[in-house]
């Protein structure tokens, strides 16, 4: 069975020019690094996949609100 999981993450360029991506989980966090934003997100994807393998899918809360 496949399940889609959406994981919010932050992406920023470090002082040395590399890129870092970070996602938070109830069991901790995951980090990805790379020379480009795409490489950092791909590295983060691998880290998140390993966390899900070990700890399972994190609980997700979705809120839908009207925005003025």
TrEMBL record:
This is Type II toxin-antitoxin system HicB family antitoxin. It comes from Actinomadura craniellae.
């Amino acid at each position: 069975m496949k399940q889609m999981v959406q994981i919010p993450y932050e992406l920023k360029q470090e002082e040395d020019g590399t890129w870092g991506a970070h996602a938070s989980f109830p069991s901790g966090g995951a980090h990805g690094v790379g020379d480009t934003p795409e490489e950092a997100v791909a590295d983060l994807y691998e880290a998140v996949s390993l966390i899900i393998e070990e700890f399972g899918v994190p609980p997700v809360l979705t809120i839908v609100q009207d925005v003025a």
